[in-house]
Amino acid sequence: MNRFIKSLFFPLISIFIVSLIYFGLSLIKTDKDFDRVLAKNNQLSTQVDQLSTDLALLDSNLREAQQSLENIKNEKTAVTSKVIPGEARPATVSVEKQNAEPTIVTKTVVQKIEKEVEKNQATVTIQNVGSFKVLLQPSDTAFSILKRASEENSFPLTYDSYSFGVFITSIGGIKPESNQYWAFYHNGLFSNVGASDQPIEKGDSTFWQLQTF
């Protein structure tokens, strides 16, 4: 009997030792899982705290926005209450931008320049008769333009022809008295030659008037 018990003693001790080892390994594994779970819980707790902080900040911002809207509403009410009775209340208020871009207006200016072309003519002025423009022809003289002026403007002209030239006896029906004659000025100067010998150029003027001897 004692031999039988002794024979079982060593196997039982071996089984007990193995059991202790297995149990110890189980505890080690359980401790590792526990640490992992604990770390996970700590992480979740940190996230919850952060979310709580964010929610508190959002709530504070929302309260500030509501307060700003309330202040704006109160200001509008105060402005409305200051309107003087009897005055028209403006429907809208237009605010122009101070830095608005300037409007560029382009205008096309057409300048018409008319220059009168100076004609090839001369002026014949007769005392108590009138002043006339005469178109010039080649070799015109003071007498030829006087004659052409009378023909074109229908005033009478009489004259006598001599070898030295012509002598004017009447212009426009006006005859000189016994001591008078028709004298002419060329470009403002008294002419010392006869009318048929005084050449006329473009722009010249002749003036006829009665003078005494």
Structural features, described:
- This protein is an alpha+beta fold.
- The protein folds into two domains: 1-79; 121-212, Ferric Hydroxamate Uptake Protein, Chain A, domain 1 (Beta Complex), CATH 2.170.130.30.
- It is 43% helix and 20% strand.
- The protein has helices at residues 2-81, 142-153, and strands at residues 121-126, 130-135, 157-162, 165-171, 180-186, 189-190, 205-212.
- The strands form two sheets. A five-stranded mixed β-sheet has the order 2-1-7-5-6, with helices on one face.
- The radius of gyration is 66 Å and the shape is rod-shaped.
- The termini are far apart.
Strand and helix map with partners:
Layout: H1 2-81, E1 121-126, E2 130-135, H2 142-153, E3 157-162, E4 165-171, E5 180-186, E6 189-190, E7 205-212
Parallel strand pairs: 1-7
Antiparallel strand pairs: 1-2, 3-4, 5-6, 5-7
Structural class: alpha+beta
Give the SSE string.
HEEHEEEEE
Weakly predicted, low-confidence segments: 90-97
- Output the number of helix runs: 2
Fraction of residues in H or I helices: 40-55%
CATH hierarchy: architecture of the largest domain: Beta Complex
Q: Please tell me the total number of domains.
A: 2
Average per-residue pLDDT, rounded, comes to 78
Query: Which descriptor suits the 3D outline?
Result: rod-shaped
Distance between termini?
202 Å
Task: Report the strand count.
Answer: 7
Question: Which strand-content bin applies to the residues?
Answer: 15-25%
| Biggest pleated sheet | 5 strands, mixed
CATH topology grouping of the largest domain: Ferric Hydroxamate Uptake Protein, Chain A, domain 1
